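Hi, here's the filled form for the chain we discussed.

Project: internal
Contact: R.S.
Residues: 418
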Amino acid sequence: MKADARSAPHKPSDNMIVFGVAAGQILTFGVLFHSFSLFVGPMQAELGWSGTQITLAFTIGLFCADLFGIPVGHWVDRHGGRLAMALGSTLAAVLLAAWSRVETLWSFYAIWIAIGFAQSMCLNNVAAAALTANVRDFRRGLTWVAILSGLSSVAVVPFASLAVTVWGWRTGLMALAVAQLVGPTLVYLVVLRGTVGSRTAEFARRREALAEGRAPSAPMGGASPLRSALRTPAFWLLAVACSVHWFVITAILIHFLPMMQERGVAHEVAVAVFAFGGPAAVVGRLALYVLDPAASARKSGRIAFPFFGLGILSLIVLAPMGLWGLVFYAVVYGMAAGVIMIVRQTAIVEIFGTRGYGAIAGALTTVCILPRTMAPVTVAIMREGFGSYDPVLWILFALIAVGTVAFWLAMRKPAGEP
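And the returned structure, exactly as it came back:
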């Protein structure tokens, strides 16, 4: 019997799936990403570790989350996202509790290796795979999840900061662990009930055939969707574009404040401009939804990537001119970066279809491991070598130009397509 992702029995409505997944992403992103910096100072004071030693754990977590992307994506394509996301959220809560009891640096790193695995099960690609396989208007779903998850720092960081201030960092982590356990875990179990993976039907038919003693028929579409994707130039061109995006985003995230300090910008002004990037990304995603809710990744990306480059160019040319130059940078760069996050997810469907989405998205993420994790140290080395951030920014601008061309080539329409 053919299983249809969009007519699965007892499946919640599309809106319930979209906003339920968004709620889970808001809390988990806030807990595992945006709140991390709140614990660096208190841990330094109590344990005597350096800031570099502590933040290295965060980098290890990112690396492991990307590394586990392919196997987790394969599993979600076959079985759906409900169990993976619920288990990942539960594991994250348990690991937060373990973090609150940490005493040695190596155990701290081990916990963050496991947190990376938990992230790969319940964030980003898995959430997108659940939406593309089960929501009719998946572009709208992905856009709304991106819009709302962009508010995670605003929703979670004040609570986390208050918990650390009032109870201390160890009890504060326990409070976040409880919130993670009773929030996303329960939400995913409810809103993803009855949902399936992009390849669930194929494997259900194979199991049925084997149980009846018949030779299983070939799965829909023939070969593994991941193997098929890896053989195409489009996959590798898209990987180049995504790698550039991750490299630049991560480099600016870590080096923006030192860059502004080098230019003599007041710390308060630099922090305000830096903080404005998040709301600007949300505005960009809202603008995309309002102005053209059915926009293809091809169309949106061909606009967003050049504007991404314009943002870096404005940081080189306009930002030194004063506050309004910095504001222009924050608006253009933030909006473009926010839209590209959605483009990355929808481009996979436009090029390769929904079948095997989780595995293909996981493979793209895995290819981006080094650009994403090595950006901070690479930029630091370049800054040391040049003696200034200005040449580094020109290199970032050149990389975006390469990524823009790669995206345009990846998204070329096949011959004969109107």
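Let me know if anything looks off before we file it.
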